[in-house]
Specification:
Length: 310
């Protein structure tokens, strides 16, 4: 018998329309007023991008700025040109953040013998149809293959394309490959930096270069709206902890997904309301168990009470 008696919530269509209109108005205002600096991570002049409210739109603005197709972008990092997976652009950007764009480089195909159940990969995606490797576990199958690196885009498993799939789908496909099987990964690595000390130019806003030092962020909401929010210490710790649970459960890393889960529980008073909010959103397709939802709720309540450590 399920722990939670989950019932769909019927919403008034007029209320939904009013909320959506308010989101759209705010979205337009945000896009018009904010301008971000960017560079290609392997080296380029500094560009300016604005008028976007989600990752796909951001990629298109960057592509327009540098005159290349947006599907060449693998991912972006904030405030560093290096492939630092702790600095990935996810569902939010600090208002002072500098965007570095990592583009498609050399393709490569590697045959892998699955000698253990776990390959040792943590997978994330760029929010625009590309999954890539965020972490490789030490002494794992993948760690012993020198041709595979953090940042590589997983384009195909055998002959099946992974483009357009979410990271949890790719992680499940790799997990479901039987032990003892030999399979082929087609990967695309990011273009390597042409020089090692590339740094963004000083901001034209009249102050010295100091990136990512503000608390205000532009957050891409799940409903498509962009909103400026102030990041709190409790939300940061809670979201980081939720992301750790996702990695342990699913083998994925997704700050955006963790943020969405946090937001579903942010204003809830008990675990049953939180479970209903999960079930009445697109998070339902992940099939979280009751035990996992209780674990997530525990993280949220601990973060609110200040019991989580960095």
């Amino acid at each position: 018998m399920p722990l939670f008696n989950r019932k769909p919530v019927q919403k008034n269509k007029d209320d939904q329309a009013a909320v959506q209109n308010k989101h759209n108005e705010h979205d337009d205002q945000v896009k018009q007023n904010l301008v971000f600096h960017c560079q290609q991570a392997h080296g380029s002049p500094t560009g300016l991008v604005s008028n976007f409210s989600n990752v796909r739109e951001l990629y298109q603005r960057v592509a327009d700025c540098y005159d290349f197709p947006s599907d060449e972008i693998l991912f972006c990092t904030l405030n560093t040109h290096k492939m630092d997976m702790t600095k990935l652009l996810g569902s939010q950007i600090g208002l002072d953040d500098f965007i570095f764009v990592h583009r498609k480089g050399r393709p490569k195909e590697i045959e892998i013998a699955k000698t253990n159940e776990a390959l040792g990969l943590t997978i994330t995606d760029n929010g625009s149809g590309y999954c890539f490797i965020k972490r490789i576990k030490e002494n794992s199958i993948i760690d012993k293959i020198s041709y595979i690196s953090v940042g590589d885009h997983i384009e195909k498993i055998d002959n099946e394309t992974m483009v357009g799939r979410r990271h949890y789908e790719v992680a499940k496909m790799l997990k479901d490959i039987p032990k003892g099987t030999v399979f082929t990964l087609r990967l695309i690595e990011p273009i390597k930096a042409g020089f090692s000390n590339i740094e963004p130019r000083s901001s034209k806003r009249g102050k010295s270069a100091s990136y990512g030092n503000g608390k205000e962020t532009l957050r891409f909401k799940a409903n498509g709206a962009a909103q400026i929010q102030k990041e709190t210490d409790e939300s940061k710790k809670g979201i980081d902890k939720i992301n750790q649970l996702l990695e342990n459960l699913l083998g994925i890393s997704d700050f955006e997904l963790a943020t969405q889960i946090w937001e579903k529980g942010e204003d809830k008073l008990n675990s049953m309301d939180f479970a209903e909010a999960i079930d009445n959103s697109d998070l339902d397709e992940l099939g979280f168990t009751d035990d996992f939802i209780i674990e997530l709720w525990g993280v949220i309540t601990d973060a609110r009470a200040g019991r989580l450590k960095n």
